[in-house]
Please model this.
Amino acid sequence: MEEQHHPTTPFGRRSLTLAHLASQAIAKARPPERAVHKWNVFRAICTARMRIGVSERALTVLDALLTFHPETVLTGDGLIVFPSNYQLSLRAHGMAPATLRRHLAVLVDAGLIVRRDSPNGKRYARKGRAGEVETAFGFDLSPLVARADEFEAFAEAVRAEERALKLVRERITLCRRDIAKMIATGIEEGVPTRQGGQGPADWAEVHALYRGLIERIPRTAPPAVLEPIAEELSVLADEILILLETHIKTQIPSANESQTERHKQNSNPNILPELEPRFPESQGARSAPTPPSSRSSEGSFPLGMVLDACPDVSDYAKGGISNWRDFLATASVVRSMLGVSPSAFEEAQNVMGDIPAAIVIAAILQRGSAIASAGGYLRELTRKAETGEFSLGPMLMALIGSRKREKKRA
Model:
């Protein structure tokens, strides 16, 4: 019996490229006794699909092609499958013929399969008298066997990068949480930021440095890009911790007394703590307090919606934000860090109400470097609120929409 000839060129107007010839050469050079588990190879290709250059839809077609090979192990010479477009489309979840042909071409170009077209372009097999397949025309799965080790190496590299990315993102998250809460503690406890005439002028400057690092974090980036940022955040966290620990050491003699005083001041849980420190009458004071029911006891928007739009504010909460009281106290800390003056914040509270003003502070924090002057921006919104030109709803919905778009891109 004459030796079977394996066609090299595709049928019809399809062109032959050097990449196609290279794939055929790799398939031809594989040892005949080489055997691989077809689904193990397929899983490796799925993991490394971005490196190989195939889409999810193309992998759906490859999955369908593999089901036409009767054995789980790919070995030997009988690796050509010859399904009709109709049957292949059914196993590819009803994929349209034109889409099917496009993704088959992608698999060929990526070197995952090789075309073995018949003289008339049809796919079929010719059997001998004993019933064995003598000649087959269709798609040759030999490259999967020949390149199995290469695909597994790609997949392992991808898994290693994913592990490294997960670790560096965890490190960034922990540093962000620690820095935000330590800054909040430093502000509330009045911890000085300068030691021996050196260091940042105040906690607002420390917070600005922190936000500058956060703004550098891209939406999607490899570990090599995130590692330097994680290192800078770690250094900043260590420096802030040193500030707090140094302050604790200098305050040890009066620690018990100060703790007792704070306990007495907060002994009544029904009194909302002051959100701003006292300041001279010349800076202005509220002429008459507004009833709590209209100013601070409840918000016009659900707290969950506000936190969904402005998640960064939660980083500065000592024990989390579970109610509006927690939110107001956290917003007061954030206000100081953003450099918003007490008078600007008080004016916003007078015009908008306590909770809406606090929501605006959280929104300003969320927008980060997009707002050059937090205090000036708050005063502008306050003026618009006085004339009815500003509403919180569109601002919150814009922030929620922006976060959803970022997640989708990521």
Q: What stands out?
A: Strands lie at 35-37, 73-75, 80-81, 114-116, 124-127, 133-140. The chain has three domains: 18-146, 162-251, 292-409. Residues 381 and 387 are 10 Å apart (CA to CA). The first strand starts at residue 35 and ends at 37.
